[in-house]
């Protein structure tokens, strides 16, 4: 059974839907940003450990590289999942905006559209929010892998316990 709505009810339903879609869009962007900041904080902590540690065994370097790769892949899956949801949400926003005439010239403003033409497109741009986050995650992961394999060696020679005892005895 289909419910019959008059034009005013349809407009109200569209406005409610549009508001919900806008809220969801903001939440997805915020969640992805917070997640990336959280991972960046973890990366700073790991980078500090890598810089302060004098030397790692080969097995430790391999394990750290695998950990970094696992975190990177997991982060990309999460961010790309949010991006897909964001794109679907964006398409729903545009459909609602079109139904309300927000992209049609002259409906709200004389001779022009209410919203810019760019708002009527769902094409992914190089510099969009989610591309930027993915690029940042690549930079962080590469930096950590480089630090893992080139972490500084100790520049001060290690003092053997026998040498230390001899120095104390004198």
Average pLDDT works out at 89
Determine the number of helices (DSSP H or I, runs of at least 4 residues): 4
Binned strand content = under 5%
Helix and strand composition category: mainly alpha
Low-confidence stretches: none
* Count of β-strands: 0
Shape: elongated
Q: What order do the helices and strands follow?
A: HHHH
Q: What does the largest sheet look like?
A: none
* Distance, first to last CA: 100 Å
Radius of gyration: 27 Å
- Relative helix content: over 70%
Description:
The protein has 170 residues and is an all-alpha fold. Helices cover 70% and strands 0% of the residues. It contains four helices and no strands. Helix 1 (7-52) packs antiparallel against helix 2 (58-99). The longest helix is centred in the N-terminal third of the chain and has 46 residues, at 7-52.
Per-chain topology:
Elements lengths: L6 H46 L5 H42 L29 H22 L10 H9 L1
Name the descriptors.
0% strand; mainly alpha; 170 residues; 4 helices
Q: How would you briefly describe this protein structure?
A:
The chain has 170 residues and is mostly helical.
């Amino acid at each position: 059974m289909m419910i019959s709505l008059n034009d005013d009810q349809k407009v109200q339903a569209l406005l409610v839907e549009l508001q919900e879609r806008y809220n969801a869009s903001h939440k997805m962007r915020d969640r992805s940003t917070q997640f990336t900041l959280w991972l960046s904080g973890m990366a700073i902590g790991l980078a500090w450990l890598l810089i302060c540690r004098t030397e790692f065994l080969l097995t430790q370097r391999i394990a750290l590289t695998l950990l970094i790769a696992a975190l990177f892949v997991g982060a990309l899956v999460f961010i790309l999942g949010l991006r897909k949801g964001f794109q679907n949400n964006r398409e729903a926003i545009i459909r609602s905006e079109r139904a309300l005439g927000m992209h049609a010239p002259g409906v709200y403003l004389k001779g022009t559209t209410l919203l810019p033409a760019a708002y009527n497109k769902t094409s992914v741009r190089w510099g969009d929010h989610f591309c930027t986050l993915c690029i940042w995650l690549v930079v962080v992961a590469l930096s950590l892998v480089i630090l893992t394999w080139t972490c500084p060696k100790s520049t001060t020679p290690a003092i053997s316990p026998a040498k230390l005892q001899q120095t104390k005895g004198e």
